[in-house]
Amino acid sequence: MNTLSLDRNPEINEININLAQLRINYNIVRNLLNPNTHLMAVVKGDACGHGMLRIAKELEECRCDAFGVTHLSEAILLRTEGITLPVHLLAPCLPSQVKFLIEYNIIPMADNLKIIQLLDQFANENRSCATIHIKVNTGLNRYGIAPAHAVEFISEIKTNYPNLNVEGIYTHFQDPDKNPELTFRQIDCFKHVLQSLEEKNLRPLLAHAASSSAITRYPEAHFDMVRCGMLLYGLEHEEGERIIPPGIKPLVTVKALILKIRTIKEGEAGGYGTEFIPTKDTTVAIIGIGYGDGVGRGWRQAIISGRRVPIVNYFMDGLMADITEIQDSVKEYDEAVIIGSQGNENISILEVSKQFNRYAEEQLQSITERVPRKYIP
Ligand SMILES: *Cc1c(COP(=O)(O)O)cnc(C)c1O
After folding, report:
1. Probe residue for ligand 1, chosen from 211, 232, 235, 251 as the CB with the greatest number of ligand atoms within 8 Å
2. 87-89 and 106-110 as β-strands: parallel, antiparallel, unpaired?
3. Quick one: DSSP state of residue 45?
């Protein structure tokens, strides 16, 4: 978890996170939904590297309906930092973690009776009632009970575990971006489960299935709640893949200051080893971000003075950029942008993540805690 620093002074490097854009993204997503549909903001993985707490607080003010995370530690942190909305643990919890779910009022994903039995027991000892959401596996084959067992599973809980409230039931899509055929089959399968539960008067209050890509692509999969992460952060896996609604944009700019400008003579070394030995006199800038910040080898370009320049060597705390062509317009302590816009140039997260063969959120998460997150209101 990165240090929560709300307003910091300029640093050698920083990630700027545009909260106004987060609110815009939130409102656009909200307007894709029926007024009664709940919006769970998924803030797992440190809100995809944006800083979970600050993002959650902003989304709470935007009036989202719930939060989703995947580690118990994330859920507990939301609670200890004062989040009062429902917090869902969307991934399995361990038997040894169950007592914390009760203590911190966290809603688990339930797909096995061992956890259910423990939850009921702790809830009973605590003289409380534990809310759970049941997961159904419709094709991802990760977590969840078999669709055919849903009726039996929920009636078993209702009969034998009186301290549990089965508030929700959900599923997760396998490839909603690229496999509509399977997605429609998963939607149908989930609808059948809901119908069979309705017939027995067992249908939980909140049925949900859609994460970001299904929110835009399959309105029929919105049900009673959607679980939204990526779209809120303006991220997509591949350009155009998610048909991102107009107006939704990334929140993040990653930048660092130029710490040194120097000219390297033809044939001399530019940094360690033989990585960069210029064949003509070359002016370089050392930008204050490096592999110690998660920005290392393979990073190709930066924007300086509104122009793209090539990165030619890498340090733990710096990147060496060739600025020969723009040297007259650059001075020490100028800002270099490595993700985001400066002047008319833009390096998108998508462009960078493609170079590394990563997902956009994976790329952002790889930037280390050392880079302060600075939130722009
Ligand atoms: C991560 C996750 C989500 C959110 O997915 P996005 O693509 O970020 O919107 C929703 N549901 C589950 C179960 C998840 O694990």
Report:
1. 211
2. parallel
3. H
272 annotated active-site = yes
**Residue position matching structure tokens 């002074």:** 9
Mean pLDDT of the 30-34 span: 98
Q: pTM for the complete prediction? A: 0.92
Cβ neighbourhood burial of 15 (10 Å; 0-12, 13-18, 19+)? buried
With a Cβ cut-off of 6 Å, ligand 1 is lined by 42, 44, 90, 172, 211-212, 227-230
Residue 9: count other Cβ atoms within 10 Å of its Cβ.
8
Grade residue 9 by pLDDT with cuts at 50, 70 and 90: low
Looking at the DSSP bridge assignments, the partners of residue 189 are none
* Interatomic CA distance for residues 97 and 102, integer angstroms: 9
Residue 218 bears catalytic tag: no
pLDDT digits (tens, 9 = 90+) for 71-97: 999 999 999 999 999 999 999 999 999
Q: Which residue has the tokens 């027991």?
A: 121
